[in-house]
Amino acid sequence: MDMNGKTVLITGSTDGVGRHVARRLAEDGARVLIHGRDAARATTLIDEIVSDGHVAPTFYQSDLSSLAGARALTDAVTRDHRRLDVLVSNAGIGSQNGGPQRQESADGYELRFAVNYLSGFLLAHLLLPLLKTASPSRIVNVASLGQHPIDFDDVMITKGYSGSRAYAQSKLAQIMFTIDFAEEVKAMGVTVNALHPATYMNTTMVRAGGITPISTVEQGGAAILHLIQGDDVAARSGLFFNGMNEARANPQAYDAAARKRLRALSLKLVGLSS
Prior knowledge:
Elements: E1 7-10, H1 16-27, E2 31-36, H2 39-51, E3 58-61, H3 67-80, E4 86-89, H4 111-126, H5 128-133, E5 137-142, H6 163-185, E6 190-196, H7 204-208, H8 217-229, E7 239-242, E8 245-247, H9 256-270
Parallel strand pairs: 1-2, 1-4, 2-3, 4-5, 5-6, 6-7
Antiparallel strand pairs: 7-8
């Protein structure tokens, strides 16, 4: 895909791998919409892109730990733009951000499930009219190799909680949504794919978990950019990639009944009709 003039929204793009992807797309002439919670980080990124001689990205500030934040982001993007060529759901929190204890979102949901999964689920649905207008368009969900099956009797993990389990469950939910949504929007000219960009990239999230990074944001960014731009994936959808290569996710991702159950629950939690 020739990115010149294309409009791309990247959630969680004022830091880490999202920041790298935003800079690369600005270099390619894209109209980049960056998102984050920290306005100072956004200003620094914008200044760097402009000083490199590229068009300044537009910053949208919102907190995706609440559904209201996701809706506010959608409203702002819809107000300013008539089309969206690519949505990259990259915003997220790791297994230890904020401490090892169980945490809840503003809406009362387990925090990692809310931020890593539900916010992107809601954004994709609400921004679908803009993506349809820009067809052929793409959605890229930044997931992980770390995946844990969803216990539908305790989705919010009120028992036996651990941050690593919560994170891995939220990432599998992203992949299950990817497969489902790809089928739903196929006739609209929208593709949806998910990926594990790289293992333990040198990001704030990884370092906050006390983990020594073993990959760079450049490595992870290249994998994300492949799904955004690659001609070889232009007509492929509903897939999970490990870096540059197609891979298999946790078996629950391919359980149609489990995906149907997750979809019904998710629509209810975010307040959308089926």
